[in-house]
User: What shape does this take?
Amino acid sequence: MIPHLLYYQLAVFGCLWLFVMLCWAWPSPCLDERPKADPTPPQCKRTDALKAFAGLTHKPPCPLCEQEAATPTPPPPVRPDPMPPTKRRPRAIDTSMHFCPHHGCSYRGWLGLGNLRANGHPSGGPWRQLQCTSCEGYFLATHGTLFHGKRVAVELIVRVLACLAEGLGIRSTARVFEVDPNTVLQWLVEAVQQLRALSRYFLRDLHLTQVQ
Ligand SMILES: [Zn+2]
Assistant: This one.
């Protein structure tokens, strides 16, 4: 049997050993003499002031912007004054939807300024001829359209294009209407050009959120 005095002495020594080990192993700001590492940089405080991003201080290169800067857009044309009324008999033909196509004419491209008048049907053709009283130039009413310079009936061209739009092939359409396939292809190409110009004029500056 272990005597009580020896048991108490062992307990005191155990407590002293545990106290010494804790003092040695426990980190203390006063006793820690080891050199410290570099202090961590202070964290940036969040501010509401906006700062420019260093990577976007210069304008990014853009071929379109450079092209526009190299070739500045010309000023828009000035709308000429409407033609004064004349002493001739009132015009029975409506020319408000036509414009003078001649280059160098100040009325070129303008509608409804009273500078056009009908001039009959040259050579008995189906299309009317118009004259510009400003530049004294003549042009047919079909100028700039799909039917300009064609001798076939308008109804034939319309029906051929309608069949193509319905999905019939070029050769099939040519056999149905007894037209050369190259002629049908030429009409199709011209119709595509007209449709492309029409879409480019009307379908622009559209701020759409959904497209079906
Ligand atoms: Zn003209």
Remarks:
- The mean pLDDT is 84.
